[in-house]
Amino acid sequence: MTTENDTTADAVAPPTEHSPADPRFAALPCRPGKIVAIHLSYASRADQRGRRPQHPSYFFKPSSSVAASGSTIERPAGTELLAFEGEIALVIGAPARRVAAADAWSHVAAVTAANDFGLYDLRANDKGSNVRSKGGDGFTPIGPSLIDARTVDPAALRVRTWLNGGLAQDDTTAGLIFPLAQLVADLSQHFTLEPGDVILTGTPAGSSVAVPGDVVEVEVSVDGGPTSGRLVTTVIEGAAGFDPDLGSLPAADDLQRTEAWGSREAAGLSPEPAEGAEPTPSLSPALREKLEAVPVAGLSAQLRKLGLNNVTIDGVRPLHPESKLVGTARTLRFVPNREDLFASHGGGYNAQKRAFDAVGGGDVIVIEARGEAGSGTLGDILAIRAHARGAAGIVTDGGVRDADAVTAVGIPVYSAGAHPAVLGRKHVPWDHDVTIACGGTTVQPGDVIVGDRDGVIVIPPGLVEEVVDAALAQEDEDAWIAARVAAGNPVDGLFPMNAEWRARYGAERASAAVSGSGAADLRSPNRKVEPDAAREAGR
């Protein structure tokens, strides 16, 4: 018998060689009564997150989440952000209630490796409790062997994690914000830590996302001393999803992607704008309406006047010629297929999928495929995703798979043609929201994209107001000239207008502005000039 304040090492049961009948707990002396985990404890991780806690905070994990080394973990259907977190696990050997930090380590029987897997798609709705995001079956692998806590210095433990053989995490307990003994003492202030309980002591920087097929290994050791051995877990794709009638569904946003992957760059997201940088321009409803009223040919003429000739995306044709395309660019880049690169970048939650998940209302996904139309760069599923996200359209200088199904989605799509082959025949999805080349012109995120039957044009955002207003004015002028030509006037001197015709045009515009009549007509550049009306106007 021990008292709650008994802190002698003799009170701690040493690691047992006995394995419970349930193989999930093979590395532990028994099924844990409770598993307590800490949110942030390593300085490297806190610095990565940009916030350092003043005090430790915790959450519980169910013992049903424990798994043994060599097990698999399912990434549930409909999710993308299953992250690994290599950690040091403490196994309590003697009851601890209100123990001092100086005595707390004597209540720890053993240390070993653990992997605190988390599903970031469910994290926001858990609001810190992590009940669903970290409580799933198999989400807490532990083992494979215990290290006697009496034989090690708690300030000299090392934890390392490998993803598919590559070292992803490597830190020591010297980098902890809160020493291991402090965690034991702190928790014992609030409830009794009982033999067999497990404390997960946090993860250092380097935690990231694992996808089906990945193998994650974690090891806890003392340099030159004992080791837990490597805790091995393989990620597999789960077939079961979540019932919307029972609870909230998984959802991922750029914040969750950034924190799951470890950085915006690793998640394939564009960098945050520098402090003081101008925000990416967006299209106001009034500006969008103007752009929808002006033909691409008119915009092209005005850009040419400003010295911009290489602004058309060549070689693409619309699936919906009757629809106007207006929006701001979000970019996606494919590189030529190379088998080893497709193996590392083509599967899982690749840049193509991330780009279509990140697109927002009014955006146009512009795809660099090097003019290679020998395989599809999107199909109906991705077109549906873009449409559901409110995208204004898609432009690719590559091919489209399932062209009839993509057309049926209804979103404006411009492509180099249809092709039945899958992406991996010609392309590797590489990155998104970067400067790309599409159809022979450079496109940057935030550029204004306009398309109609004539083709697709790229307008630098800083010029769009000037260009569209000049194009509208030119369209008014061209409509007036067309009416004069239809009435029988010769083109010479009228197109372009000489001084006499220019004066007449100016006088008529001034008269229309004073009377308020005809202004709307002059601002309708796409109207057709009927011959009878033109003759009447020319008398």
TrEMBL record:
Gene Ontology molecular functions: hydrolase activity; metal ion binding
Domain of life: Bacteria
Cross-referenced InterPro entries: Fumarylacetoacetase-like_C, Fumarylacetoacetase_C_sf, RraA/RraA-like, RraA/RraA-like_sf
Binding site residues for Mg(2+): 402
Cofactor(s) required, per the database record: Mg(2+)
Transmembrane regions listed in the UniProt entry: none
One family name in Pfam for this protein: RraA-like
Compositional bias (Basic and acidic residues): 527-539
Residues annotated to bind substrate: 379-382, 401
Residues covered by region (Disordered): 1-24, 260-283, 514-539
Keyword Repeat applies: no
Alphabetical UniProt keywords: Hydrolase, Magnesium, Metal-binding
Domain Fumarylacetoacetase-like C-terminal stretches: 35-235
NCBIfam families linked to this entry: PRK08245.1, PRK12764.1
Protein name as it appears in the record: Fumarylacetoacetate hydrolase family protein
